[in-house]
Amino acid sequence: MDELDKDCLFCKIIRGEVPSYTVFENDDVKAFLDLSQVNPGHTLMVPKKHLTNLFDYTAEDAEKYLKYIPAIANAIKKFDPKITGMNVTTNNGESASQVVMHSHIHFIPRFEGDGLKIATRNNEDKYTPDDYQKIADQIKAQF
């Protein structure tokens, strides 16, 4: 537990200093109910290492922590037969609405007619094939 931050809320949850409703835990990750419960079963999965967000992950971190996503998603889906889908999301940085600065994955169960809207927008009319290619090439150059 020496890889945890003393002031981070999620690190405190991992250490047991703040109570949580744990649904899964092992040496690598802890998954617990989000108190906001956007929909019943809304769960957060956090690595048991203080990483601010996905931008801090090494390939080894990703291999170690993200491999649990399918198992957690499936366990949540199985808990309620009315679940018809799931949003699996992460907010990386304040501009992406990250509130707790410890990497976490949201599992938000979806139900037919639940009325929940995940806001996106379609800007396709603002891009030409050349614009798309330029953006793709610039990103590709970063690998």
Automatic annotation (TrEMBL):
Active site feature: 104
Cross-referenced Pfam families: HIT
A GO MF term: catalytic activity
Signal peptide residues on this chain, from the entry's feature table: none
PROSITE patterns xref list: HIT_1, HIT_2
Highest taxon, organism lineage: Bacteria
Motif (Histidine triad motif): 102-106
BP-aspect Gene Ontology terms: nucleotide metabolic process
Residues of the HIT domain: 9-117
Protein name as it appears in the record: Histidine triad (HIT) family protein
Gene from which this protein is expressed: hit
